[in-house]
Amino acid sequence: MELWNLTVIDLFISVPIEWLTLWFRLPALLLINDLRQGLFYAVLFSFWLVFAGEHHIDDSTRNNLKNYWRNLTLVLSASAALLLYDLAGRGRQVMNPFHSVWASPSNAFWARIALNVAGGATLVYFLFLCWKIWMVWTTIKR
User: Fold this and answer.
1) What is the pLDDT of residues 89-134, one digit of tens each?
2) Which residue of 42, 53, 132, 139 sits 20 to 30 Å from the alpha carbon of 20, by its own alpha carbon?
């Protein structure tokens, strides 16, 4: 068993960077933790799509990640929209803790756009995943 076989994503999610606050002042720690959590959810949601797809496909193209680009586009678009929203809100709060993205009408407009895109992509992702699980269930039942 090899303990040092970590990928970059595992390392980024698992390293306890909160301990650094014992020695240094890190105002961007909330932003970093939000990025780590978003990366975790993006990997988790991608895993469920690929996992369901691998049980649905019975031919030789099933072990190729580039066949899932349509499926993973939903996850990437929702993750990108939420990343932009988070960077607009928390990224500015690193400089000014009392700043709100909802303070000005133009910032609030773009925040609403990012949230609507992320919500729409998440809803489509959930419906697509339910359909994929239903297709896998009917394939297994036969």
Assistant:
1) 777 777 777 888 888 888 889 889 988 888 888 898 889 889 988 9
2) 42
Contact (Cβ atoms closer than 8 angstroms) between residue 27 and residue 94? yes
Contact 13, 37 (CB under 8 A): no
Q: Within the chain, what is the greatest distance between any pair of CA atoms?
A: 60
pLDDT band at 62 (very low <50, low <70, confident <90, very high): low
**Within a domain: 38:** yes
Tokens linked to 27: 């105002």
Residue 54: pLDDT over 70: yes
Half-sphere exposure of 15 (CA within 13 A, CB side): 11
pTM greater than 0.85 = no
Contact 29, 18 (CB under 8 A): yes
Rounded to the nearest angstrom, the gap between the alpha carbon of residue 24 and the centroid of all alpha carbons in its chain is 28
Domain that holds residue 129: 8-141
**Does 1 reside within a domain?**
no
Position 2 in a domain: no
Position 1: which residue type? M
Around Cβ 139, how many Cβ atoms within 10 Å?
A: 12
